[in-house]
Structure formats: structure tokens, C-alpha cells
Amino acid sequence: MHADNGAAIEIAGLTKSYGRAKALDGLDLTVTSGQVHGFLGPNGSGKTTTIRVLLGLLRADAGAVRMLGGDPWRDAVALHRRLAYVPGDVNLWPNITGGEVIDLLGRMRGGLDRRRRDELLERFDLDPRKKSRTYSKGNRQKVALVAALASDAELLLLDEPTSGLDPLMEAQFQQCVQQVKREGRTVLLSSHILAEVEALCDRVSIIRLGRTVESGTLTELRHLTRTSIAVETAQRLDGMDGLPGVHDLVLEDHHARFDVETAQLDAVMRRLAPLGVRSLTSTPPTLEELFLRHYGDEQAVAR
Amino acid sequence: MNGAGHLLRFMLRRERFGLPWWLLGATVLVLVQSTQSQNLYDTPEDLAKLRESLGGNTAVVAMSGPTRLLESIGGEVLFEIFAFVSIVVALMNMFLVGRHTRADEESGRAELVRSARVGRRATLTAALTLAGLANLAVGVLVFAVTVGTGLPVAGSVLFGAALAGVGCVFAAATAVAVQVFENARAAYGAVALVLGAAYVLRAAGDVGDGTLSWLSPIGWGQRTFAYVDNRWWPLLVMAAAIGAAVAVAMAMLGRRDFGAGLVRPRLGRATASAALGSPLGLAWRLQRGSLIGWAAGLFLLGAAYGSIGDSIEQYVADNPEVAEFLPGGAADIVDGYLGLTAMTLALIGTAFGVIAALRARGEETSGRAEPVLATATSRAAWLASHLVVAAAGSALVLAAAGFGEGLAYGLTVSDAGQAPRMVGVALGYLPSVLLVTAVAVLAIGWLPRAATALAWTMVGYCAVVALFADSFEIPGWLQRGSPFAHTPQAPLEALTATPLVILAVLAAALAAGGYAGLRRRDLGY
After folding, report:
1. Locate the ABC transporter domain: which residues (chain A) (predicted)?
2. What residue segments make up the domains of chain A, in order of their start?
3. Phi, psi (degrees; rounded to nearest 5) at A278
4. Do B183 and A58 touch (CB under 8 A)?
5. Which CATH architecture has domain A226-284?
6. pLDDT at position B61
7. Residue A48 and residue B234: Cα distance in Å, rounded?
8. Is B401's pLDDT higher than 80?
9. Are the CB atoms for B181 and B187 separated by under 8 Å?
10. Could you give the CA distance from residue B36 to residue B82 in angstroms, rounded to a whole number?
11. pLDDT average, residue stretch B108-122
12. DSSP secondary structure letters along A169-191
């Protein structure tokens, strides 16, 4: 059943509706084995629905879904032995302690590494003796994280796992994921925290309204976007606004600030050079900008 | 205190669907009792005969109240119903105060409220006012139905006031409990313990010389001897208790941090025991508390029924019209009585089976089933874990009820054989209980959103058919839908295997059908 083709998850044309509401509308996603794959999208874009389909909790309406070489709906139990899951909204049994929950989930998956469990508890500074009802949101999330990370699952499905963690714990989490990656395991990381995705992910898929809008390595995605340039020249800057690929130009005699499409960067530089560049700063596009560019128009529609 | 008025209005709005049912329940209990008592004992001679037959029966006195009440018909109503309706009203107050104080604080809703221009004491003040208004309504309604059914005005005013007073005592006790404990469940547990103690103390007092009854709020209410002596001063005892408890609660509230209690929650185990390692281990852990409570409750109720079994014969001889309500008529009075009460116990026990099965649905909607089903746990194993607890638990609950009834009856007639006999009678209803539970499972599989409503409709239907078929003249075909109608009414009738096997097979089929639906559908909605 091992995925020899190098893909831990392969989704093509996945559709899922709840009544009339379309949660997924032809979603594509390929996660390569041994990589950390970032899964980005605004609230309600279908990230959690996708993960629930992968867990066999929801049945796909249409499309092809393969995970670890199996069918998530049909082979759910066999596949679940090989994966660990952290839900976005962690609900625990109020009367059961965190330590008990970690052991219970581990045993039901087929065993967990006691030493690693205790190490993780220390790392995340979590008291396992407290009843779950007394945990804050962040602490409930830590319980689920420890349960997942203490397993030796080959695939980790993490649905916004750090939304309740403080920066210190966020750093611990990043170290843990890097460790998982070094061990050659695969991670699907749905997230809102772009710095986290930039730090951890080999590839990123951006989804919107149940459809994949971008997918690739961060370098590839940056190519699709713009670099911000601030420049001061010896001669007056003229004719900049006519250039292809230049946007949001602010021009004042010898100073200019603008964004340029990565593909046009070379042409713009050739144009600037003869004018005598005195200073120039260029800022690479952040994932943030990438993200906002894809959702900006959605917000405009919402307004 | 700032903002208490607004909070009170908001609380009333939140209670507008729930509270009327509590008020209705308490009113109907009193209304039915008043009508029935006045029908059964409409002459002073009847009442005198009742005094003779019940006055010497310790069990009845322990269950109901002081025999002095039996000296007038109004007092007889109080004797029979006051302790029970007190429990209903006390629980109403406990939930009213608990829900709007500690439960809100625990969920974080109260934090939002307190961040507004609302004083530290406003929430508790508003919740206690709400409880006060609810108790006033109880008092007025009880007054209305007792006077309306022809009881004297002065006694009825006192009856209403005493009942409202008991309610206020428990509202105040809850106000203290929610300061002490950090979570609402623990506070409810403490108040329930106080309520249990109040009932037991008054039982012990009423059987003995009456001293212990003065330690119980229910005892204070009964010892107004409304309709007999019309004593008002026990209400002052209540007022003093209410004042003291509210003062303590307010003082504690003034000293504690938001969200904290006096008692720190205890730490639990750092690692899971060997038992907590499978879906069944989890289901057992989640339901064992409820199972123990149900088994103990039905054991006690069974014991209460059983303890008066022996007096029933005498009672029916004195009141031949009662025999009409017993399935065996006047001939087999005791067996008819034992059979009817065993069926009543089984009907109540059905609620446990249904609650246990619906737990699976609750786990699903709360999102707690998701991490379990993301492990190597199949849907079949997950559902089965809850159903095993439901089925085995139902058997245990029924056995406990039968054992309680048989033991208590056996003790009064010195017959050790009654306990195992009644366990057998009660277990005869297991297939019926399982069938009703299986209806819940079928609904969980195919109509999950309606499952809770459908399951309880089935329970209600079985109860109505079983208990009121004759008085409501329900047609035969409509009665036959209830599994209880197909269970032989032991010990009056012999338990035959065929109907029980058919019911059990049907239950298994429905449960399998429910699983077939669950296997197919999306989970978590």
C-alpha cells in the first residue's frame, strides 16, 4: 500500500456540498512524501472540509482522492494507523485529564512513544494531570499536538495547529515540525500564520472558495508576484508609468516607489540603470502579499 | 449591583422556553394529587381509614411526611405530594441559579458581561431575583390549583408560600455552592447532595420523634401543617436560612477572583490506566457515573415501591375502587401491584438506555468523536462501544430496580425469594428497553438531526400507552406499537420466551439498520 509514486496525498477535482452550499468545488492538491506542505486559505475556503474528507469523516461527492496509496473513505481504519491528526478546534472530554487523552488517542492509533510523549509535555510546558475542562484553548491544542507528535505516524494532518499558541510555543512547534521533516515524514499544515508557512513549508497550495488557486514552491509562487522597489536616480525619472508590469507608481522627480511584476524586473532595471541609480531597495514579495492579492478582490466583493 | 436589572431581563429571555415547563410540572403534580385525593377520600371516614392503614406504615411515612398532616384532606394532599414537588422546585432553583452564574462563568460568557458596566454582585443578584420570581410563580400557581380544586384558602396560601420558601432556600444554597466550586457540575452535585440529605433527614425525623425533620428545608415546609394547624412561623426559619446563605454567598463572591472557587479542582492522573485504551474503555469512562446514578436511583425507587407492597393488600381492601387500576383486579392484588410498578421502573429505565445511545450523537456534534475516528477506530467499533454500555447498562439498571423492589418487599413479608424473583421480572423488560434504545440508534444512523426528538417521542409514546391506555381509551392498534404491550406482565402473567426473543431480534435489526445509515453518511454534522 506504500505510495511509491512519491505522493502522500493526491486529490483531483474534489467536490463536496452541504445541501446547496458548495464547500469544495473541484479542488486539486498533491502533497509529496517527505515534504511539509502549506495549505492556505481564508476561513470557510474549504481547508477543514478537505482534511475531513482525507480522514474519511466526509464522503466526497465527486473527484479522485488517494492518501498513502489508499482510499480515505474505504480504507479509513488502515490508513489512520499511519497518520496523526490535530483538529483546528480541539474539543476534549471535560472530566478526563490531558495525559489520559494523549495516552487514549495514542493507544487507539496503535501505540505511542512514551519517552517522546514525556519530552513533548516538557517542551510544550503542559501539565498532564489537569482535567480537560480547566485547559485554555491553547492548552487543549497542546494536548492534541503532543498526542500527534508523540506518534511515529508517517503523515501528519495539522489543521491550524498553532492558532492558540503563544510565540514561545510557536517556536517549539516549528522545531518539532522540522524534526518530523528530518525524519522523512510528511506534513499537511493548514495555517493562517504566514511566517510559520514560510519557515516550514516546502510547497504551498492556496485555496479559495473550494478551489486551488495557486500551488508550488515558495520560489515559484514569488515569481508570479511583484517586487517592491524604491529608487533614487541622478537624472529625472520620466516615462516610468508607461512601462509594462509596473504598478502603484509614486513618482517625485528623482524618487520613485513602485511594484514590479517579477517577469518584468529585468526590463525595468535596464531602464533605470542609464539614469544613474543613487540608491535602490528592493523588497521580495512576502507570502502575505501573495495571500492578499488572491483574496483582495474577494474582500472587495464582500464590501 | 450596577446592571442587575438589565441582566435580569436578559435571563428571563433566556429562560422563556425552559422555565414554563418546570412551573407546569410542579403545578400539574399538585393539581393531580389534589383531585385524586379528594376523589378517593371524599368522606371523613375514608380519611380516618387511610390514617389507620398508612399511619403505622414506616415506609410510607419515610417516603411522604408526618402523619399529623392526615387529619384533613388538604393536609393529606400535602402529605402525599409536598416532598416530591419540593424536589422538583429545588432542582428548578438549582439549575436557574447555577446556569446563570457558575456555568456562564465557566464558559467565558460571564467575562464578556462583566467587562461591561456591570457590578461584581449584579449577576448573582439578578439570578437570585430570577429564582425568587420563579418561586413566586410556583406559589401563586399552587395556590390557584389548590383553591381551584376546592381546598380552603388559608391552607392553600400557606402551601404555596411553604413551597416557594423551599425553592428559595435551594436557590440560596446554590448561590453558595457556585462560589465554592469552580465548575457548575460540581456545584450541582453539592446541591443535589444537600437535597438528598434534606429528604433523608425529614424521612428519619418523621419516622422518629420529628427532631431531625427540623434540619431539613422540606421538613420546615411540611411542619407548617397547612390545612391542619396553619402554622406560619416555620417560614421564618426558612427566611433566616435564606438570609444567612445569601449573605455568605455575597461575602464569598466579594473575596474570590473571577472564575475561581474556594475549592481548587483536584489534579487527575498524568497517564491513562490500562482500561482507558479503547473505544469501549472511553465509552465506559464517559458513562459510568451516569450508570451508577441511574442504578442507585432505580434501586431506591424500587425499594420504595416494594416497601409498601404488603400494605397495598390492606389498602385495596379499604379502597376497592383502587383495584380497578391494577391489572389483576382485586384477586391478585400484590402481584398486580408488583407487576405494574416493575413496568413503571422499566419505563424509567428506558431513559437510561436512550440517553446512553444518544451519547454517541452528542460525541459527534460536540466534535469529540472526530479525534477518536481519526485514529484506527472504525465507525462500527465507535458506535458499538456506546451501544454495549447502553445495553449492558440497561440490564444493570433494570436488575437494580427489580432487586430493590424484591428486597424491600421480601423484607416486609420475610421472604428472601422475592429479590431474585423481582430481578427476573424486571429483566423481562430488557428486550423492550433495548428495542426503544435501538429506535434511537436507527435515528442516529438515518436522521441524525432529529434523533434526540425521535428517541424521546418513542419513550413518551411507550409511557403513555403503558400507563394511560385504559384511562385515555387508546385504540388497540395504536397500543401495539409499544414493545411494552408485548411483554408479559410478570409476575401476574408467566414470562414466555417467544415475544421476548422477537423483541430482542427486532432490536438487533434496528441497531444494525442504524449502523448501515451511519456507515454511509458524513460525520460531525
Report:
1. 9-234
2. 7-217, 226-284
3. -90, -40
4. no
5. 2-Layer Sandwich (3.30)
6. 83
7. 61
8. yes
9. yes
10. 15
11. 84
12. HHHHHHHHHHHHHHTT-EEEEEE
Distance, in Å, from the CA atom of B124 to the CA atom of B178, rounded to the nearest integer, reads: 10
Contacts of residue A31, Cβ cutoff 8 Å, sequence gap at least 6: A7, A8, A9, A10, A37, A186, A188, A203
DSSP line for B338-377 = HHHHHHHHHHHHHHHHHHHHHHHHHHHHTT-HHHHHTTT-
Any idea where the domains of chain B sit in the sequence?
Answer: 4-255, 279-520
pLDDT at B186: 87
Mean pLDDT, chain B, whole residue set:
91
**How would you classify residue A253: left for phi > 0, otherwise alpha for psi between -120 and 50, otherwise beta?**
left
Contact B521, B361 (CB under 8 A): no
- In chain A, which residues have their Cβ closer than 8 Å to the Cβ of B525? 18
What's the CA gap between B321 and B190, in Å, rounded? 43
Quick one: CA dihedral A69, A71, A75, A77, positive or negative? positive
Substitution target in A67, A86, A100, A159 with the highest count of B β-carbons within 10 Å is: A100
Residue range A285-294: mean pLDDT, rounded: 72
A128 touches chain B (CB under 8 A): yes
Please check whether residue A109 touches B, CB under 8 A.
yes
Q: Which residues of B touch A105 (CB under 8 A)?
A: 371-372, 375
Distances (CA, A) of B59 to A81, B67, B309, B359, B409: 58, 12, 10, 36, 11
Q: Within 10 Å of residue A4's Cβ, how many Cβ atoms?
A: 8
A97 touches chain B (CB under 8 A): yes
pLDDT digits (tens, 9 = 90+) for B79-103: 999 999 999 999 999 999 999 999 9
Find the mean pLDDT for residues A206-217. 90
The answer to whether residue A56 scores a pLDDT higher than 60 is: yes
Residue B175 φ/ψ region, left for φ over 0, alpha for ψ in the -120 to 50 degree band, beta for the rest: alpha
How many Å apart are CA B436 and CA A60, to the nearest integer?
A: 33
Percent of chain B with pLDDT over 90: 67
Yes or no, beta carbons of A108 and B523 under 8 Å apart:
no
Place of cell 402473567: B493
Omega before B20 within 30 of 0, i.e. cis: no
- A104 reaches B (C-beta below 8 A): yes
Q: Beta strands A255-261 and A246-252: pairing type?
A: antiparallel
Give the rounded distance of the alpha carbon of B326 from its chain centre. 24
Per-residue pLDDT of B429-448, as tens digits, reads: 999 999 999 999 999 999 99
Cα separation, A285 vs A223, whole angstroms: 9
Q: What is the pLDDT of residue A298?
A: 53
The band of A302, judged by pLDDT with boundaries at 50, 70 and 90, is very low
Nearest by CB to residue B268, choosing from A83, A110, A129, is: A129
CA distance B182 to chain A (A): 9
Identify the CA nearest to A187 among candidates A65, A85, A286, A41: A85
Interface A-B, measured as beta-carbon pairs within 8 A, has a size of 115
- Quick check: B395 pLDDT over 70? yes
Mean pLDDT of the region B136-146: 97
Minimum mean pLDDT among B140-154, B256-270, B447-461: which range? B256-270
Q: What are the pLDDT digits (tens) for A229-282? A: 899 999 888 777 778 888 888 888 889 888 888 788 888 888 888 888 999 998
> At the topology level of CATH, where does A7-217 sit?
Rossmann fold (3.40.50)
**What ipTM was predicted for this assembly?**
0.84
Q: Which three cell numbers stand for residue A52?
A: 475531513
